[in-house]
Each structure stands twice: as structure tokens, then as C-alpha cells.
Specification:
This protein has about 120 residues and is of the alpha+beta class. About 30% of the residues lie in helices and about 15% in strands.
């Protein structure tokens, strides 16, 4: 029998035997990435957050309280996290005014490309 698209006989492509299949690991053996919610309330929490990211987890951190209390400390904390992310090839981004997202190297943060603004017509 010929395959009309490929023009080959069925005998040319025998069915694979059981020996040609690989056994996949069970789902329980696969490590799953976790998303954790934390509160950034100072320099000690930076170490705790970055430890979780180094373990392969994604951390969403609330910065609202620290932003209201001490913006200089918040800037210092974010600077330390940016440096740590660069060292592990991770990613960090703000999500609104009250949250930041920190990811390990196995995950990334999608940033929508800014579309060029369309020129306004003279009628607007």
C-alpha cells in the first residue's frame, strides 16, 4: 500500500517495536515549581525571599507596607534582589504599585513590547 502524500510503501516504515519506546518517569518524581506569596518588610526578608527563588520557586512579594514606612530601605532591598537575580540568571519585575515578582532562571517574566504610538491625525 502506498501513501499518496509520501509515495512510500508501508513496508518501508515498519511499526515501532516495544524496545524503541522510552519509559517516562512518574509524575511524583517530577519536581513542580511553586508560586509563593511573601511580604517584603526589610533586609532580613530579602534573604528569605531569595533563598526561596534559588530553590526554584516563583515569589510574589508585597511591598506596600515597606513603601509606606521607608522608601529608602525599599530601594535598597530591591537593589539587593536585582543583584541576586542577575547572579542566578533570574528575573524581577514590578506588578503594579504594591507587588514585585521574582523568578528563578527556569522561569521568566513576559514583558509586552511597547507598541509604537500611532501618529495622531490632524482631525483629532
Amino acid at each position: 500500500m502506498k501513501f499518496p502524500l509520501f509515495g512510500k510503501d508501508e513496508e518501508d516504515n515498519p511499526a515501532p517495536s516495544d524496545e524503541q519506546y522510552a519509559e517516562l518517569p512518574e509524575d511524583s518524581a517530577v519536581m513542580r515549581m511553586k508560586v509563593m506569596v511573601e511580604k517584603l518588610d526589610g533586609l532580613p526578608s530579602v534573604d528569605k525571599i531569595m533563598r526561596k527563588v534559588r530553590e526554584g520557586n516563583i515569589v510574589i512579594a508585597s511591598i506596600r507596607d515597606l513603601k509606606e514606612a521607608n522608601t529608602e530601605e525599599l530601594k535598597h532591598c530591591i537593589s539587593r534582589m536585582k543583584t541576586a537575580c542577575m547572579n542566578i540568571n533570574g528575573d524581577i519585575a514590578g506588578a503594579g504599585e504594591e507587588w514585585i515578582i521574582i523568578t528563578p532562571s527556569s522561569a521568566g517574566i513576559y514583558r509586552e513590547a511597547a507598541l509604537p504610538s500611532e501618529p495622531k491625525s490632524e482631525s483629532e
